[in-house]
Every structure is written in C-alpha cells, then in structure tokens.
Write a structure and sequence with these properties.
The protein is α/β, with parallel strands linked by helices and 259 residues long. The protein folds into two domains: 162 residues, Rossmann fold (3-Layer(aba) Sandwich); 84 residues, no CATH class. The chain has ten helices and seven strands. β4, α5 and β5 form a beta-alpha-beta unit.
C-alpha cells in the first residue's frame, strides 16, 4: 500500500476545509492518499480541486484500505462515527486513527483503540479557507498533539511532515486548549468586523486597508509580550484586508459547515 518504506496509505473522512488540505500536505511528503469521503456537492468539488487524483469512497472503504485514517468531521459527529465503525468491526489492528478536533483528546477514539487501532489527536491551530493557499500556511502553524506516550513521536512526525510545529497537549488539557483557540479566533474576527463596520458607516473606503497596519502592529505587540518567539500574523492580516466583511472568516477546523 505504501509507495516506499515509511510511507502510509492515507484515507480522509470528511471533505470540508480541513481534511483535503491535510491530505494534500501528507501527499506532498510522499504518503499516498487512497481515498476521501465527500457527500455534498461543495465537498466533492473541494476534494476534486485539492486532491484531483484521489477517488471519493465510502467511509467503510476508506477505513478498510488505509494505514492512516484522518477523521476531519464536526465534534458532534466524531464519537458516534468512531463507535459505529467499531460496532461493525471496521477498525484494524495497527491502523493509525487521527482526528482533528481541538476539544477532544484520544479518549474519544477508545472504540477504535479497542479494535487495535492507534489513536492520535492532532489539531492545526490555524484558520482554513479550504483552498490551496492553506498549504503554505501550515508551515507557519502549530499543531496540538495528544497521544499515548509510546506513539507520541508518530503524531509529532506527521505534523513535521505537514510542515507544522508540534505542541504536546495533555489529554486532560484539551478542553482548555480548545477554549483558548476559540477565544482567540472569535475575538480577533469580532474586533476587526466591528472596527470595519464603523469605518464603513462614516464613508471610509477599504476599511480593511486602513486598519490593517494598526491591527498587525497591535497584535504583534501583544504576542511579543505573550511569547518571545516570532509568530506569523498572515491570517489576521488577511482578515483585515477583507474589510472584516466575512469573505475569509476565521474557520475553526471542527465547525460543522467546514467539514
């Protein structure tokens, strides 16, 4: 199934804004994407655009044929999906199962673990547009990695192969991690939208262009106080440049409309 030693056959469940991008990143690292599930016309179009040579398969087909299964589905669907596949005996011993939810650790994958699968919880802390422009952004992003200690290096290695930086988050800390991610995303989007709306009301053209430098400098200052490490603010800049009108809003990887 693998193209060369160390390469995996990757199946993706969910063709929203996250799954196809992660699949494309892993394909770029030499892994073989064997299939993706897609139901709606939008998800099928997205899958075709990002992974044009990858067939659309059913979820059981993907799980049966994959060495690494990526579950890029909404939070509220994750537990029932994993349990349903376990009930039909679909999970295979030694198979890697990775979900992209910020909120859950690996406990939600317990039914797959009982079937012999290896659980990984990997969440990319970035906004997604669901287009190819997300791929270079992965290189500037951090990924929360939660996994049993013996397989933690596997999760970290997958993140590095996708171009990201792994950050270990303990199982019991995933709720707090998710809260931090949601707070930062909602706050930055809300503030930019409010400021842009005010400028629009007083007749300022291209309000995003006006507040963009201010937003970037303010956020750079705040982030420098929070961490000495340099942090890429390209996503925030994109929000400002759209005028806060919602053209490219922050996208949480587990929002239902984005899976």
């Amino acid at each position: 199934m693998t193209a060369r030693p160390g390469r995996l056959g990757v199946g993706i469940v969910g063709a929203g804004r996250v799954g196809p991008i992660l699949g494309a990143a892993l394909a770029g690292a030499g892994h073989a994407v064997i299939g993706i599930s897609a139901i709606s016309h939008a998800s099928r179009d997205r899958a075709e655009a990002i992974l044009p040579a990858v067939p659309v398969l059913t979820v059981p087909q993907i799980v049966e044929r994959s060495e690494l299964v990526i579950l890029a589905v909404p939070d509220h669907e994750l537990a029932s999906l994993v349990a349903g596949l376990a009930a039909t005996g679909t999970w295979r011993p030694g198979q890697l199962v990775l979900h992209t939810s910020a909120r859950f650790g690996t406990s939600v994958l317990a039914p797959a673990l009982a079937g012999g699968a290896i659980p990984l919880a990997i969440h990319p802390a970035m906004t997604f547009t669901g287009t190819s422009m997300d791929l270079p952004r992965l290189a500037a992003s951090y990924f929360a990695v939660t996994a049993p200690t013996p397989v933690l290096p596997i999760g970290q290695a997958l993140v590095v192969e996708m171009g990201g930086e792994p950050v270990i988050v303990a199982e019991e800390d995933r709720e707090s991690y998710a809260e931090a991610i949601e707070t930062a995303t909602a706050f930055s989007s809300s503030i930019i939208e409010q400021a842009s709306a005010i400028l629009e009301r007083i007749g300022v053209e291209s309000p995003g262009a006006v507040i963009g430098p201010l937003v970037r400098s303010a956020m750079e200052d705040a982030l420098s106080r929070a961490s000495p490490d340099a942090i890429d603010l390209s996503l925030l800049a994109d929000l400002a440049e759209t005028g806060g009108a919602g053209e490219t809003p922050p996208v949480h990887p587990t929002d239902p409309e984005n899976q």
